[in-house]
Amino acid sequence: MREVPKSIRTHIGIFGRANVGKSSFLNMVASQDVSIVSPIPGTTADVVEKPMELGAIGPVVFLDTAGVDDATELSESRIKRTTAAFSRADVFVVVTEADCWGEYEEGLCAAARNNGASVVAVVNKTDVHGLTDGFRQKISAFTPHIMACSCVDGSREAALAEFKKLLSDAGAGGGAQRALVSDLVPAGGLAVLVVPIDSGAPKGRLILPQAQALRDLLDGGAVATVVRDTELKASLAMFSRKPDLVVCDSQAVKRVVEDTPPDVRCTTFSILFARQKGDLARAFKGAKAIAGLKSSDRVLIAEACTHHAADSDIGRIKIPNMLRKHVGGDIHIDVFSGRDYPEDLERYALIIHCGACMITSREMSARIRQAVSKNVPITNYGIAISYFQGVLDRVMEPFGLG
Ligand code: SF4
Fold this sequence. Notes:
Helix content: 25-40%
Number of helices: 14
CATH superfamily of the largest domain: P-loop containing nucleotide triphosphate hydrolases
Number of domains: 3
Oligomer: single chain
CATH class of the largest domain: Alpha Beta
Strand order of the largest sheet: 2-3-1-4-5-6
Strand content: 15-25%
Order of helices and strands: EHEEHEHEHEHEHEHEHEHHEHEEHEHH
Structural class: alpha/beta
CATH topology of the largest domain: Rossmann fold
Bound molecules: iron/sulfur cluster
């Protein structure tokens, strides 16, 4: 199950004060040493990720976070990393110990509430102090999902069974993700995926957005064909019927739109992901800000993963070149990738985000909320490129936005 993309796993954040046994708890659940366990407070400096299969809950990824209530010199970066994990967690597991529930734990519950996540409270170290009725009652004001646990001398099987039940009661693993593309092509319908194979294409494989779209179409019972942009026209002529949808890589969108009959719907992988992970109408609206950009403006290009940038890289080369051409001169462009997403978004006139295939819709939605809170328009690679190429209305038409 390790191959299940992280973006479709349930994210379970393990939060709590330093040294309440968060890592020990995770190690017990995972039955291996995932995190460094030490009696010295503040040993987990970064967020440690552990993907695993959790029975009926399905594929999950645990986020083992640092306790941020300590005063070590690393505390500022710990706080940042731990609070950044708030926007990724579908469930907050708040680990604590007997009679230790105060402002800190209540703050975690508030963060969960603000992010639409549920809370499971784990009262650890019951080999030292048991869970009293009074303490359980105090916690129950914040969550009904409470368990007592000892990572030292308890039964792992019993604790794991109880934990899985609480996760299930808290809604973990039950959330259905919006379809990527299968709702646009009926079962038995025909979709054509257009994948340019240029020097930037990775050797011997499709990239994740292409593979996920293909799989979603197959799951929906559609007939899916994959061709290069150079063969699209000839392929369409070979088919005895018109496709229900053509999906292409953003960088080939101009040619693909030209080669696709006007009565065949056409869009890009990036736009499909903008719809699945975020807010397509907002991203479409955000593209309108491109028209007003000036050379004195600053634009943020944000990618949700880190990858080796080729000479023809979309985020670092192609979109910046299109922006410069559009404003008729230089323009300040910052590129952030992976987990890095700046806090001072107000500096930007526009954010252009990648399709975000590697992160969950919860995390992408949090990025959009941050932009909205700073009044910064946010759009998406496929939408921006289609705008520059003059084909935006055509590729948004399948969603009623063109
Ligand atoms: S840059 Fe974005 S869309 Fe491209 S692979 Fe990474 S996460 Fe997915």
